[in-house]
Specification:
alpha/beta
Length: about 180
Amino acid sequence: MNITVFLGANMGGDQMYLMEVKALGEWIGKHGHRLIYGGSRIGLMGVIADAVMEAGGEVIGVVPEFFLQKGTEHKGLTELIKTDTMAERREKMIELGDGFIAFPGGTGTLEEISDVISQKKLGRTVKPVAILNIEGFYNSLNAMLEKMVEEGFLDRSDLNKVYFAKTVDSATWYLEYNM
């Protein structure tokens, strides 16, 4: 299974993120899955890629050309796919994924997982989506989505297609159960 993980190129301010991203990477590698991610060697992105490979898994990075000029790409990956734009990168990561996990991250992570949620709502994908809500990181997003339901902008059935997981174990269980 190709698991697309959206996450930050920064480490975040809580050591819990580091521990959990390593656990997710180890699970992906040990279970014979392949990681699809943003291709960076820095921050949580680099940590998850290294953890997957150390556990024997394959990693495909998708990186826009202008990131290559910065030299932040991970050079030890199974495959590195180059795109022209961030939008093409996101599209490729979604295309390659059999399931999706949003790990804590920044605005890029939010944009990526929002695109997947919209595609689920529109019936463009039936692939499972888990939002890893470590230490309540995504509580505000969950509240915003609930507000959209309350105000009539999102159907409850569409929100129910997104799983808010509190742990790596529950996120990975959800993906496996819904594949």
